[in-house]
TrEMBL record:
Protein name: PTS system mannose-specific IIA component
InterPro entries: Bacterial_PTS_sugar_comp (IPR051471), PTS_EIIA_man-typ (IPR004701), PTS_EIIA_man-typ_sf (IPR036662), PTS_IIA_man (IPR033887)
Cross-referenced Pfam families: EIIA-man
Keywords for the protein's UniProt record, in alphabetical order: Cytoplasm, Kinase, Phosphotransferase system, Sugar transport, Transferase, Transport
SUPFAM superfamilies on file: PTS system fructose IIA component-like (SSF53062)
Subcellular location(s) of the protein: Cytoplasm
Length: 143
Protein backbone atom coordinates (compact mmCIF):
# COMPACT_ATOMS: atom_id res chain seq x y z
CA UNK A 1 0.00 0.00 0.00
CA UNK A 2 1.18 3.47 -0.86
CA UNK A 3 0.53 6.36 1.53
CA UNK A 4 0.52 9.86 0.04
CA UNK A 5 0.40 12.87 2.36
CA UNK A 6 -0.77 16.14 0.78
CA UNK A 7 -0.83 19.58 2.35
CA UNK A 8 -0.45 23.29 2.07
CA UNK A 9 3.27 24.13 1.82
CA UNK A 10 5.83 21.87 3.46
CA UNK A 11 3.57 20.36 6.13
CA UNK A 12 3.40 17.00 4.34
CA UNK A 13 7.19 16.79 4.07
CA UNK A 14 7.61 17.85 7.69
CA UNK A 15 5.14 15.35 9.11
CA UNK A 16 6.77 12.53 7.14
CA UNK A 17 10.21 13.55 8.40
CA UNK A 18 8.92 13.61 11.98
CA UNK A 19 7.18 10.25 11.67
CA UNK A 20 10.29 8.64 10.19
CA UNK A 21 12.19 9.76 13.28
CA UNK A 22 9.72 7.66 15.30
CA UNK A 23 9.04 4.73 12.96
CA UNK A 24 12.17 4.60 10.79
CA UNK A 25 12.54 5.18 7.05
CA UNK A 26 9.48 4.15 5.09
CA UNK A 27 8.95 2.93 1.56
CA UNK A 28 5.85 3.89 -0.40
CA UNK A 29 5.37 7.04 1.66
CA UNK A 30 5.17 10.23 -0.42
CA UNK A 31 4.67 13.91 0.41
CA UNK A 32 3.35 16.66 -1.83
CA UNK A 33 2.63 20.26 -0.98
CA UNK A 34 0.66 23.02 -2.63
CA UNK A 35 2.69 26.22 -2.76
CA UNK A 36 1.55 29.85 -3.21
CA UNK A 37 3.03 30.13 -6.71
CA UNK A 38 1.16 27.02 -7.90
CA UNK A 39 -2.46 26.37 -8.68
CA UNK A 40 -4.30 23.30 -7.50
CA UNK A 41 -3.88 21.54 -10.85
CA UNK A 42 -0.12 21.23 -10.25
CA UNK A 43 -0.79 19.25 -7.07
CA UNK A 44 -3.51 17.21 -8.80
CA UNK A 45 -1.04 16.13 -11.49
CA UNK A 46 1.49 14.96 -8.87
CA UNK A 47 -1.16 12.98 -7.01
CA UNK A 48 -2.55 11.58 -10.26
CA UNK A 49 0.89 10.28 -11.26
CA UNK A 50 1.10 8.37 -7.95
CA UNK A 51 -2.38 6.96 -8.57
CA UNK A 52 -1.51 5.85 -12.11
CA UNK A 53 1.68 4.14 -10.90
CA UNK A 54 -0.19 2.40 -8.10
CA UNK A 55 -3.03 1.30 -10.36
CA UNK A 56 -0.50 -0.26 -12.74
CA UNK A 57 1.05 -2.10 -9.78
CA UNK A 58 -2.41 -3.11 -8.44
CA UNK A 59 -1.54 -1.36 -5.18
CA UNK A 60 -3.94 0.31 -2.72
CA UNK A 61 -3.46 4.02 -2.10
CA UNK A 62 -4.26 5.93 1.07
CA UNK A 63 -4.18 9.71 0.71
CA UNK A 64 -3.95 11.81 3.86
CA UNK A 65 -4.66 15.53 3.59
CA UNK A 66 -4.14 18.34 6.04
CA UNK A 67 -7.38 20.35 6.11
CA UNK A 68 -10.99 19.43 5.38
CA UNK A 69 -12.16 21.45 2.34
CA UNK A 70 -8.67 22.90 1.77
CA UNK A 71 -7.18 22.96 -1.72
CA UNK A 72 -5.18 19.71 -1.27
CA UNK A 73 -8.33 18.00 0.03
CA UNK A 74 -10.26 19.30 -2.99
CA UNK A 75 -7.53 18.11 -5.37
CA UNK A 76 -7.89 14.58 -4.00
CA UNK A 77 -11.68 14.74 -4.09
CA UNK A 78 -11.60 15.72 -7.76
CA UNK A 79 -9.39 12.70 -8.53
CA UNK A 80 -11.81 10.33 -6.76
CA UNK A 81 -14.07 10.62 -9.80
CA UNK A 82 -11.57 8.65 -11.91
CA UNK A 83 -9.43 6.72 -9.42
CA UNK A 84 -10.10 4.24 -6.64
CA UNK A 85 -8.29 5.22 -3.43
CA UNK A 86 -8.90 5.98 0.24
CA UNK A 87 -8.71 9.51 1.66
CA UNK A 88 -8.64 10.74 5.26
CA UNK A 89 -8.32 14.42 6.07
CA UNK A 90 -7.09 16.16 9.23
CA UNK A 91 -3.83 14.22 9.43
CA UNK A 92 -1.47 14.52 12.39
CA UNK A 93 1.63 12.67 13.58
CA UNK A 94 -0.11 10.04 15.74
CA UNK A 95 -2.50 9.16 12.92
CA UNK A 96 0.29 8.84 10.37
CA UNK A 97 2.23 6.59 12.76
CA UNK A 98 -0.90 4.48 13.17
CA UNK A 99 -1.31 4.19 9.40
CA UNK A 100 2.32 3.15 8.94
CA UNK A 101 2.23 0.58 11.75
CA UNK A 102 -1.05 -0.89 10.54
CA UNK A 103 0.24 -1.03 6.98
CA UNK A 104 3.30 -2.95 8.19
CA UNK A 105 0.94 -5.48 9.84
CA UNK A 106 -0.80 -6.04 6.50
CA UNK A 107 -3.94 -4.11 7.39
CA UNK A 108 -5.83 -2.88 4.33
CA UNK A 109 -6.57 0.76 3.60
CA UNK A 110 -10.29 0.52 4.46
CA UNK A 111 -9.53 -0.87 7.93
CA UNK A 112 -6.77 1.70 8.47
CA UNK A 113 -9.25 4.48 7.69
CA UNK A 114 -11.69 3.04 10.23
CA UNK A 115 -8.99 2.81 12.89
CA UNK A 116 -7.83 6.37 12.21
CA UNK A 117 -11.35 7.72 12.66
CA UNK A 118 -11.69 5.94 16.01
CA UNK A 119 -8.21 6.90 17.21
CA UNK A 120 -8.51 10.56 16.12
CA UNK A 121 -10.30 11.48 19.34
CA UNK A 122 -7.29 10.30 21.36
CA UNK A 123 -4.76 12.35 19.37
CA UNK A 124 -5.92 15.75 20.63
CA UNK A 125 -5.89 16.34 24.37
CA UNK A 126 -6.16 19.33 26.70
CA UNK A 127 -2.96 18.95 28.75
CA UNK A 128 -4.16 21.30 31.49
CA UNK A 129 -7.31 19.24 31.96
CA UNK A 130 -5.30 16.00 31.95
CA UNK A 131 -2.97 17.33 34.64
CA UNK A 132 -5.93 18.45 36.73
CA UNK A 133 -7.60 15.04 36.39
CA UNK A 134 -4.31 13.31 37.21
CA UNK A 135 -3.89 15.52 40.26
CA UNK A 136 -7.45 14.69 41.42
CA UNK A 137 -6.79 10.95 40.95
CA UNK A 138 -3.56 11.18 42.96
CA UNK A 139 -5.31 12.99 45.82
CA UNK A 140 -7.98 10.29 45.96
CA UNK A 141 -5.30 7.61 46.20
CA UNK A 142 -3.50 9.48 49.00
CA UNK A 143 -6.67 10.03 51.03
Amino acid sequence: MKIVVISHGDFAKGIINSVQMLAGRQKNLKAYGLYPEEDREVLEKKIEQELITSREANEEVLILSDIFHGSPFNAAIKLMKNYDFYHVTGINIPLLVLAILERSRGTGAADICDKMLVEFFNTVQDARRLLTEESDDTEDEIL
